[in-house]
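hey so i finally got around to running the thing on that chain from the lab meeting. sorry it took forever, my laptop kept dying and i had to restart like 3 times. anyway pasting the input first so we r on the same page abt which one it is
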Amino acid sequence: MITGGGGNARQAETDGAGGRLWLRVSAVLCWLCALIPLAVWYLEDLDWPWWALVGVVIAMVVLAALGGDMWATANRAEADTARLRQAGRPAIAEVVGLEVVHQEEGPDTSVLSLRIGGDDVPPFDATYRGRHRPDHRVGARFDAVVDPTDNLFALEPRLGPR
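ok and heres what got predicted. didnt touch it at all, straight out
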């Protein structure tokens, strides 16, 4: 997921356990791939020109940073999910604006402007970004869960529109 905006609201990272595992496995693979050129250079005692070594170092840094970002995303998703399970309150999210971002490759993305509120949740505005679905339309209402202390929220995708 992508963090949302709208005042102080934040869209929760809520990948399931499988998604978090995939992120962590991918991170470890990035880190291992970052080490392979170094291991080959060390074990094979290759006489690489300086520019090849610079390229390898840059690739290693990029792969290490990418792996770190994946691991941090998995940690954020785990923390956000646990927080919403513990402190989350039911709410209703109404779509008040919609932009569909068409991708050249992969699925389109919906950017929903939401008005979220509930019995234990004071109303607030938020932005949701996610895979476009046919039920993403202005006026649609979705079940949501919110931690009202800072408006961390997630839409309940399994429940669909109201």
